[in-house]
Write a structure and sequence with these properties.
alpha+beta; seven-stranded antiparallel beta sheet; 12 strands; globular; TauD/TfdA-like domain-containing protein
């Protein structure tokens, strides 16, 4: 069974874990903390985006490296077991509480028309950690993550701005990034411009990989390969969700070996 799950993950670049009591307990403990974050004026000032329709909530949950927060449970169960087997466990970052609201996305004043269209029409598809930190908005690997964990905190339907991903895109993106960093020394990796390689690989993904909606309910979880292209779908008019919006907790643990490990970890 474990070998089957690993083969599925390695082929698709993601896997969804069925309902599990350990994830239920974790989510029930974190849910009120995410609500508190979304209502905090300082957090709102920092993280409300997309014309007021997305609370980004980066590091909004003050958990420890095992996922415990305020005396609550650690992340355990099949999710943790699979990560231990596939990657080895990495200390968790402080969880993001990503919350979307009806009407997502709306333009922000700082958005260009092209940036808003990309968010609306292409789900703001991206690889986590690639940021526009270079002159002229060029991209480099600002954060080297091991993988992406998603855990829904409330029940919605799949029309309420779900995660979307391009299945198999991790194979294209990994190959492109390996080529982009070929023959560079370690001290060149962190600020290396990957914009052209990233954009070309992204175009190939859009042309060749199926776009999938990944919907899950509390008690379920999903794991993404760090090279899987993913984003957030627009909120559809008929979407059913609680008044607090669609709430998902995300973890993206950092790799201690930085960009080099990002490129080489299987």
């Amino acid at each position: 069974m474990v070998d089957t799950l690993r083969a599925e993950f390695d082929r698709k670049g993601w896997i969804r874990f069925p309902h599990d009591d350990a994830i239920v307990r974790w989510g029930e403990h974190v849910y009120p903390l995410a609500l508190k974050a979304r209502n905090d004026p300082d957090q709102i000032a920092n993280w409300l985006r997309a014309g007021g329709t997305w609370f980004v909530g980066v590091n909004a949950i003050d958990n420890d490296s095992a996922g415990r927060v305020s005396g609550g449970p650690a992340l355990t169960g099949p999710l943790r077991d699979f990560i231990d087997m596939r990657f080895g466990w990495h200390d968790l970052d402080k969880a993001q509480a990503s919350i979307t609201y009806p009407g997502y996305p709306q333009p922000d004043p700082q958005d260009s028309e092209a940036a808003f269209r990309y968010r609306r029409d292409r789900d703001a598809a991206h690889l986590d950690g690639l940021k526009a930190e270079l002159p002229g908005g060029r991209r480099c690997v600002d954060e080297a993550h091991a993988y992406v964990i998603g855990i829904p905190l409330n029940r919605t339907d799949e029309a309420a701005s779900p995660l979307v991903l391009w299945e198999g895109s991790h194979l294209i993106m990994r190959k492109a990034m390996e080529a982009a960093f070929a023959d560079l020394s370690d001290h060149q990796l962190r600020r290396h411009d990957v914009t052209q390689a990233y954009q070309a690989a992204r175009r190939e993904v859009f042309e060749t990989c199926p776009r999938l909606v990944v919907h899950a309910n509390p008690g379920e979880a999903y794991l993404l390969d760090r090279f899987t292209l993913h984003g957030v779908a627009p909120w559809e008019d008929e979407a059913k969700a609680p008044p607090e919006g669609r709430m998902i907790a995300y973890f993206r643990p950092d790799l201690p070996g930085g960009v080099r490990e990002w490129l080489t970890l299987p």
